[in-house]
Amino acid sequence: MIVWDDTILTGIANVDRDHKDIVDKINLFLADVEADANVSVLHDSFRRMEHCIYRHIEVEEKMLLAVGYDGTKAHFAVHKKLCDDLGDMWDDMLGDVDFRPGEAATAWLKSWLFDHVRHQDFAYRDWIVAAGKVDIANERMND
Ligand SMILES: [Fe+2]
Ligand SMILES: [Fe+2]
Question: Is residue 1 domain-resident?
């Protein structure tokens, strides 16, 4: 399980709301893994987690384009890699009804959000603050 940590707050309220929601969905999935839930429960909670992450990434990318962030290309490439890694995990689950994320996959699920926020999301946050566009960014996160 991941414990939310205020050191990853961006100060853009709707971004932080999404990140907290992602932490909750990852924790629900990990709880099902730990409880050795049956395959359909596991698939459902994985899909809920994945949907929450994909939705956030989609809205965040639209917001970054709307505010004119100059680092979109690199940021989107990192998002793409995250989505590919999640997709690979889903494929592994589908290919093996007894599949349980191993230690490496579990560690990755627990760490990627914090790593991504601290490195890439904080970079756009600093740019948005300097550009005086926090309110626009916040509004756009509700699209
Ligand atoms: Fe991001
Ligand atoms: Fe984000």
Answer: no
Q: How many domains does the chain have?
A: 1
Residues with CB under 5 A from ligand 1 (ion): 121
Which CATH number belongs to the domain containing residue 116 in this structure?
Answer: 1.20.120.50
Task: Report pLDDT digits (tens) over 80-130.
Answer: 999 999 999 999 888 887 778 888 889 999 999 999 999 999 999 999 999
Ligand 1 centroid distance, CA of 79 (Å) = 6
* Rg of the chain in Å (alpha carbons): 16
Write out the two tokens for 3.
Answer: 């414990």
Q: Name the burial class of residue 140, with classes exposed (0-12), middle (13-18) and buried (19+) by CB atoms within 10 angstroms of its CB.
A: buried
Q: Is residue 50 part of a domain?
A: yes
* Ligand 1 center to 38 CA (angstroms): 32
pTM: 0.95
| Closest ligand to residue 64's CA | 1
User: Domain containing 10: what range?
Assistant: 6-140
User: For residue 104, how far is its CA from the centre of ligand 1 (angstroms)?
Assistant: 22
- Residue 26: pLDDT over 80: yes
